[in-house]
Amino acid sequence: MGNCKSSSRALRGKAHVVPDSEWRMQDFGKTHVPDLEWKINDFSSLLETGAKSAASAAFHCSGYNWYLKVNPVRKETGSETPYVALSLMTSRASMMPGHTVHVVFELSIYNHSKGMYCGCKATYNFHFKNTYSKEHCLIPLQELLKSPAFLVNDSCVFGVEILKIDVSSPEKKAFVVQKKATTVQNLFVQKKGFVKGTYTWNIDNFLELDLDHFVCSPTFEVGGHKWYVQMYPRGDKHSTDCLSLYLRLDASDELHLESKKVIVMTLSILDQKNGKHLTATSGLLVFTGGHGWGWADFLGLKKLKDPSGGYVVGSSCIMKADLTIFGSSIDG
């Protein structure tokens, strides 16, 4: 289960439009063999959604689940020029407390004119509380949109190759990255006909809940599929003194899915006194049956319990989920 709260930080450097000779990319040649090849079809539709990011479905490498994330409108500090930026994510469920996973990897975009990937090499220390790498700007968005080398039939191909993994842990485990066949994923974003749904979860006995475990809402249907909200009143193992909140696609839907669903979700806790609702909105995320995305640190417990805040009135707490299905993700 992933956490979609971004922890990316602005890259420091010159804040000006750079010519292609200064793009943040190098030709990788034939040595770059991606662990994930991710084709985004209908790239213009992705931009039209207004989503600040899109994440791939999971791919597996050396015992960890990984995701590739693209931010098509990344702006560096002091600059108004949007860049297409990539970052690497891992699943918190893959990480062990006390372990730091140092990863060397290459982020790339396919150059059809040259017949090779171009990109940048990066390193990052992943751990239990930090599962998102920095975002790395590759190419100005406007340059990508007018380039037949990178954008073909409104589609572009991104990649990531994990070169090395070192684990610092009490056991001092070492991993050798075993090369295997490239995972291929296709993301399809619809131009119209989006399916939207809203569900309000009224919890009348919030103070009587078993606070040491999670609580699930009744299932609700959006787009012909069953969804539910999962809440940890005292936070899950990934949180720090916060209520944790997730949206899940019901596991029973797995057998009925022809493709994975790509959605944008907004989760909220309603302020019943002041109307100052607390909300969090994701980028484009891929959901499969039984899988969830959300926020481990959704709302601090101190703020949740503050009687002036209106999040818990008497024993009443109201959660809300809004989701829009924008497309699908297909393997291969």
From TrEMBL:
SUPFAM superfamilies the record matches: TRAF domain-like
Transmembrane segments: none
Pfam families: MATH_2
Superkingdom, natural source: Eukaryota
InterPro entries the record matches: MATH/TRAF_dom, TRAF-like
Domain MATH: 33-162, 196-323
Listed PANTHER family: MATH DOMAIN-CONTAINING PROTEIN, TRAF-LIKE FAMILY PROTEIN
Protein name in UniProt: MATH domain-containing protein
Organism encoding this protein: Hordeum vulgare subsp. vulgare (Domesticated barley)
